[in-house]
C-alpha cells in the first residue's frame, strides 16, 4: 500500500485513475494574450509590424524593429460579466480584479560591418490566459444529483461501499481510490450510497432514493489562476529589409476551480430534501514551445509577416482534488433508519492526487500584412489558423486518455482567426488606436468570439505611456461536472455561458 502523508487533518492520496477532460485541455490551449496597452488596443494585429514587446508573441521577428532599448510594464483592471442560461433561466454576475500582466525588456545592437545590420535580444513575460472568474447558474432540471451518483454506482458491488465497525468514511474512501483502477468512480458511488441518495437493488445495481419532477439547482463556479508565458527572443535584420526571429517559450500553469451545487425542490414525501455538493480541483504544470517568424519590407510603406508556433508540450501536469457533500433527509425517513441523522455531512478530508500526465496543444500558423501612412499612421491585418482537433494527451497505456483524444477529434475543429488594427498619430506625442478580432470558436456549432478595442498613446521623449480598453465576448457550453460519460444522465445538465470582459490597461515604456 502506498504511503499516506497527514497534514492538517487532510490526507494526500495518490490514486490509479485519471480525472482529465477535454475542457481542461482546451482551457490550457486557448491563447488570449494580455500584453502591452498598444498591443491590446489594436486587437493583437502586430504580426507584420513589430516594435512592441508583446508583438513578439505574434511574430518573433518583431523585436529587431526596435531602434532603442526599452523596458515595459503593463497593469490591467479586468471586469468580468457572465450571463449563464440553464434550461431557459438566465443569471447574470459581475466581478473585477487588478493585476500586473506584462513586463519585458528589449536590447538592440546595431552592426554596420556586414549585411546583418541589427541583432536584438528580448525577454517578455506576460499572461497568456487569465482565469479569475466567478459566476452563478440557477434553474430547474429533471436530472438531480441522485442520477449523478447512480451513473457511477451501477456495476459496483454494494458490499464494498459499506462502512463496517472500526472503519471510517475517510478510510474506505482512501482504500477505494488506492486499490482499484476505477477508484474515482467507486469513491463517487460511496458518497451517494452513504448519503442515502441511492439504494442497492441487487449485487451491482442501484435505484434512486429521491422523488421529484424537477429539482432546483443553484450552482456557484469560482475559477482562479493564470497561464504565464516567458519568452526568450533573438531577432536579426538583414540588409534593412528582412527581419527574422526565433522565440523559446516557457509556460507556467496555476489553476483552481471550485464549485458548489445546492439542489432542492424535491417532492414533499421524498426521502431526500436537499443536497449541497462541493468540489475543488487544483492543476499546475509547465510547458515549452518554439516560434519562428519573418517580416519583410516589400515596399516603402508595405510590410508582410509570417510566423509558425510549434505545439506547446505541457509536461508533468499535476492535479489534486477535494470534495465533500451534505444531504438533508426527510424526517419520516430518518425515523425509519436506525442511527440516521436529519443532516448527513460526508467529508473524506482527503486530497486525491491523480497521476501526472502530458499533453500538447495544436500548432499555429499566421500570415500578416501592414500598410504605413508615412509617420501619420498605419493599418494592420493578421490571419492565423490552428486545428484544435489535434489536441493530444500522451496516452502512456491509458485507454481513458486514448478515448479523450478520439473525442477531441470529433468535438473540436480547425479555427481561422482574423485580427485588424489601426493607429493614427496627431503629432509626435499623441496617437489613437483601434482594433477588432473575430476568433472562431473551437467547438463546432457555437458562436464565434469577438474582440473590440480602443487605445491612446502619449510619447514623452525617453518614456511612453499607453492606455487601452478591450471588450472581449466569448461563448461556451459547460456542464457542472466536466468529463462525465454520456451514459451518466447528469451529463445532460449543460448551460450556455457568455463571458464579456472589459479590460483597462496602462503600459509604461522606458526608452534608453
Describe this structure in words.
With 512 residues, the protein is mainly β. It is 13% helix and 55% strand. It contains eight helices and 24 strands. Helix 4 (145-153) crosses helix 6 and helix 5 (169-179) packs antiparallel against helix 6 (183-194). The protein is elongated. The termini are far apart. Mean pLDDT is 90; it is low at 1-9.
Supply database-style keywords.
512 residues, mainly beta, Porin, 14-stranded antiparallel β-barrel, two-stranded antiparallel ribbon, 13% helix, elongated, disordered N terminus
Give a brief rundown of this model:
The protein is mainly beta and 512 residues long. 13% of the residues lie in helices and 55% in strands.
CATH class: Mainly Beta
Total individual domains: 1
Distance between the termini: 61 Å
**CATH third-tier fold name:** Porin
Fourth CATH level, the homologous superfamily: Outer membrane protein transport protein (OMPP1/FadL/TodX)
Spatial order of strands in the largest sheet: 3-4-5-9-10-11-12-17-18-20-21-22-23-24
Number of helices: 8
Strand content: over 45%
Considering DSSP H and I runs of 4 or more, what fraction of the residues is helical? 10-25%
> What's the CATH architecture name?
Beta Barrel
Amino acid at each position: 500500500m502506498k504511503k499516506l502523508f497527514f497534514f492538517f487533518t487532510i490526507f494526500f492520496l495518490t490514486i490509479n485513475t485519471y480525472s482529465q477532460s477535454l475542457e481542461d485541455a482546451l482551457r490550457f490551449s486557448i491563447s488570449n494574450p494580455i500584453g502591452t496597452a498598444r498591443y491590446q488596443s489594436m486587437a493583437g494585429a502586430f504580426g507584420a509590424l513589430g516594435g512592441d514587446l508583446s508583438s513578439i508573441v505574434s511574430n518573433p521577428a518583431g523585436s529587431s524593429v526596435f531602434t532603442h532599448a526599452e523596458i515595459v510594464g503593463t497593469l490591467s483592471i479586468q471586469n468580468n460579466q457572465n450571463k449563464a442560461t440553464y434550461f431557459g433561466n438566465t443569471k447574470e454576475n459581475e466581478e473585477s480584479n487588478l493585476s500586473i500582466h506584462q513586463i519585458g525588456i528589449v536590447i538592440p545592437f546595431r552592426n554596420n560591418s556586414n549585411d546583418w545590420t541589427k541583432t536584438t535580444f528580448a525577454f517578455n513575460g506576460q499572461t497568456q490566459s487569465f482565469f479569475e472568474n466567478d459566476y452563478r447558474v440557477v434553474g430547474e432540471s429533471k436530472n438531480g444529483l441522485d442520477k449523478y451518483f447512480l451513473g457511477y454506482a451501477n456495476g459496483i458491488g454494494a458490499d464494498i461501499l459499506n462502512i463496517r465497525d472500526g472503519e471510517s468514511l475517510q478510510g474506505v474512501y482512501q482504500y477505494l481510490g488506492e486499490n482499484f483502477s476505477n477508484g474515482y468512480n467507486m469513491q463517487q458511488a460511496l458518497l451517494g450510497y452513504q448519503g442515502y441518495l441511492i439504494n442497492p437493488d441487487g449485487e451491482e445495481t442501484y435505484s434512486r432514493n429521491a422523488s421529484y419532477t424537477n429539482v432546483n439547482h443553484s450552482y456557484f463556479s469560482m475559477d482562479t489562476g493564470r497561464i504565464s508565458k516567458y519568452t526568450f527572443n533573438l531577432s536579426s535584420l538583414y540588409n534593412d529589409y528582412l527581419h527574422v526571429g526565433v522565440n523559446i517559450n516557457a509556460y507556467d500553469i496555476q489553476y483552481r476551480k471550485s464549485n458548489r451545487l445546492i439542489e432542492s425542490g424535491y417532492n414533499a414525501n421524498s426521502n431526500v430534501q436537499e443536497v449541497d455538493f462541493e468540489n475543488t480541483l487544483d492543476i499546475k504544470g509547465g510547458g515549452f514551445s518554439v516560434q519562428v517568424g519573418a517580416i519583410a519590407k516589400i515596399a516603402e510603406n508595405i510590410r508582410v509577416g509570417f510566423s509558425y508556433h510549434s505545439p506547446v508540450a505541457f509536461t508533468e501536469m499535476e492535479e489534486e482534488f477535494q470534495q465533500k457533500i451534505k444531504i438533508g433527509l426527510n424526517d419520516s425517513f430518518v425515523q425509519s433508519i436506525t442511527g440516521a441523522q436529519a443532516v448527513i455531512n460526508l467529508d473524506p478530508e482527503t486530497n486525491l492526487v491523480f497521476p501526472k500526465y502530458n499533453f500538447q496543444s495544436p500548432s499555429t500558423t499566421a500570415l500578416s500584412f501592414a500598410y504605413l501612412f508615412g509617420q501619420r499612421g498605419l493599418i494592420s491585418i493578421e490571419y492565423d489558423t490552428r486545428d484544435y482537433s489535434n489536441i493530444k494527451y500522451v496516452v502512456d497505456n491509458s485507454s481513458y486518455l486514448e478515448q479523450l483524444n478520439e473525442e477531441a477529434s470529433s468535438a473540436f475543429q480547425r479555427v481561422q482567426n482574423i485580427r485588424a488594427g489601426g493607429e493614427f498619430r496627431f503629432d509626435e506625442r499623441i496617437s489613437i488606436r483601434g482594433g477588432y478580432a473575430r476568433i472562431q470558436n473551437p467547438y463546432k456549432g457555437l458562436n464565434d468570439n469577438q474582440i473590440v478595442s480602443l487605445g491612446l498613446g502619449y510619447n514623452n521623449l525617453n518614456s511612453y505611456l499607453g492606455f487601452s480598453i478591450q471588450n472581449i465576448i466569448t461563448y461556451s457550453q459547460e456542464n457542472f461536472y466536466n468529463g462525465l460519460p454520456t451514459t451518466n444522465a447528469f451529463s445532460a445538465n449543460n448551460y450556455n455561458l457568455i463571458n464579456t470582459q472589459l479590460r483597462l490597461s496602462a503600459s509604461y515604456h522606458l526608452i534608453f
